[in-house]
Write a structure and sequence with these properties.
This protein has helices at 5-9, 14-29, 39-43, 74-87, 107-116, 169-173, 190-207, 227-234; strands spanning 56-61, 64-68, 93-99, 120-125, 131-132, 139-141, 146-150, 158-162, 215-220. By secondary structure, it is α+β, with helices and mostly antiparallel strands. Strands 1-2-3-9-4-7-8 form a seven-stranded mixed sheet, sandwiched between helices. It is globular. The model has no long low-confidence stretch (mean pLDDT 95).
Amino acid sequence: MPSADELRELGFSARDAATLWAHFDDAERRGKLGHGYSRIPWLRTLSDLDPASRPERVEAEPGFERWHGRGALGYLTLAAICDAQLAEPPERARVVVAERCFPTGMLGHYARRLAAGGLVAALTATSPARLGHPGGGPKLAGTNPLAIGIPSSDGTPVVADVSMGRVTYGDVLAGRAAEEELVPFGGEHAYKAFALAVGLQLVVDALVREPGYAAVLLVARPEADPVPALRKAAAGVRLPGDA
């Protein structure tokens, strides 16, 4: 059984190792094995891994923040961003741009944290270009997941977390899928997933000042509490993010 000790052996502090382990363990327990324990041996393969690096908030305005990974893993950059939003929530809403933020893992992990803290969240992140047009051609966009978290007065937020790929690259790393399966999801309607992947790619690329993989978060205070009524209408149907 893997443990956080393996992350300490890679040079991470006790706090950072605990943060990374919480992410991997959450993914494993939710069945997203490509983002789970298999990522620990993958980290060992990264030539530029710098466990001592720390992300930095480089701009802060009432409705906008810009962060830079400064060499830290994207997991730790997004964890720091979540901590900051929960500590100082926006008055109404805030856009957060995270530059040099990779890898980011299971985005639903962060959206769930923010929603559990009472905030509405929508988060996307870019990655190496792995998706091409369903009709053929070069790879143009990452799998570019989109995670949405909605808080609820019943204590159980709704969290939708969808990658635009038929499988994730994490599934390939975990040996659960072949790389040729990494195409836009949707079969004959895969052009819709491709369109979303390209759109999300360009939203992020348009907001960063420094080229590279990045993330964009929209976080806001809710004005209503729609989840309990939705759960009642669902009559027991499993909603996104439910255990």
